[in-house]
Amino acid sequence: GDSVTQMEGPVTLSEEAFLTINCTYTATGYPSLFWYVQYPGEGLQLLLKATKADDKGSNKGFEATYRKETTSFHLEKGSVQVSDSAVYFCALNYGGATNKLIFGTGTLLAVQP
Amino acid sequence: EAEVAQSPRYKITEKSQAVAFWCDPISGHATLYWYRQILGQGPELLVQFQDESVVDDSQLPKDRFSAERLKGVDSTLKIQPAELGDSAMYLCASSLVDRETQYFGPGTRLLVL
To answer: Distance (Å, rounded) from C-alpha A38 to C-alpha B15?
Structure first.
């Protein structure tokens, strides 16, 4: 079945450091890929998405590229801030009638000043 | 900006009691989802509605969980009786029909004692 694997956390960085959170997926078809962010005590917020191979999603300085050849969707940011501290979830779905999101286990990012 | 509303935000109950959670999706979103997020894990779909009809409830523990969306707008998720293992965050999300992007509410954190 379909699944998403994320690098385990926590990831601890100093402010202004470069961020990479790895995400790989296993899919029977051609899904859309997502990154969601969850701040402490809150629900999930959509960070970015990509709907087909080679698409790049970007938002708030974060970006990720849909790589079909490596089945990956790694999240990157050039310079993190303390306010980026949160849990990041990679996810996939196919749209259409049965549209459930399949999530990875999440990666905790802690940015220190 | 339109948001998904959920209540209550927090609920503490004793095992064997009944609990209910409410969700109001973004106006115009015909598709509504309930996810359960156990601490340290990614969310997993419990049930998906399109309008008032259930599309997918394959992961809903039907012996104790029920969900309804009677008028195709807001929805209620009920647990009766609650068990210790039900302690989790319950997230509601909504989307336009056949669109892959889902928008999440703030969640209801349930603690069963």
So the answer is: 28
**For residue B13, is pLDDT > 70?**
yes
Question: How far A15 CA lies from chain B's nearest CA (Å)?
Answer: 25
Nearest CA in chain A to B54: A98
> Which helix (DSSP H) or strand (DSSP E) does residue A50 occupy?
strand A44-50
Q: pLDDT for B45-102, tens place per residue? A: 999 999 999 999 999 999 999 999 988 899 999 999 999 999 999 999 999 876 778 9
User: What whole-number distance in Å separates Cα of residue A102 and Cα of residue B36?
Assistant: 12
Sign of the torsion formed by the C-alpha atoms of A76, B101, A51 and A31: positive
Q: How far is A77 from chain B (nearest CA, A)?
A: 22
